[in-house]
Design a protein that fits this description.
Blueprint (H helix, E strand, L loop, with lengths): L14 H10 L7 H17 L6 H31 L8 H10 L1
Helix pairs in contact: 2-3
């Protein structure tokens, strides 16, 4: 597991929690794009945390932020495609199940 500084500024994702979920998740059904982004992200985190602050470190840090944004886009895209593939719409959402159980 990657060690993180406690005072690290958090962005959209908590990196520590994201890496934990990433490590524990079965990647068998992930798209090639998602797998590629995940492996690149892991590599960039290791490079960024090397504590050697040179030009390569700066590039790795910048690229990591770019990959984080691409990961978010790909995860949202995959979610939307899955919803579409499973023919799930607002009439079959979780809120409909909640409404069903609240009526009883």
């Amino acid at each position: 597991m990657i060690d993180h500084q406690e005072n690290e500024e958090q962005g959209i994702l908590d990196r520590k929690k994201f890496i934990q979920v990433l490590t524990e998740t079965n990647r068998g059904l992930a798209s090639q794009t998602l797998l590629n982004l995940l492996f690149r992200y892991e590599m960039l985190i290791h490079l960024e945390e090397s504590n050697i602050h040179d030009e390569k470190w700066e590039k790795a840090s910048d690229e990591k932020v770019r990959i984080e944004n691409l990961l978010i886009d790909e995860i949202v895209y995959g979610y939307k495609e899955t919803v579409k593939l499973l023919d799930i719409d607002d009439n079959h959402s979780l809120s409909m199940l909640v409404d069903f159980f609240e009526e009883k």
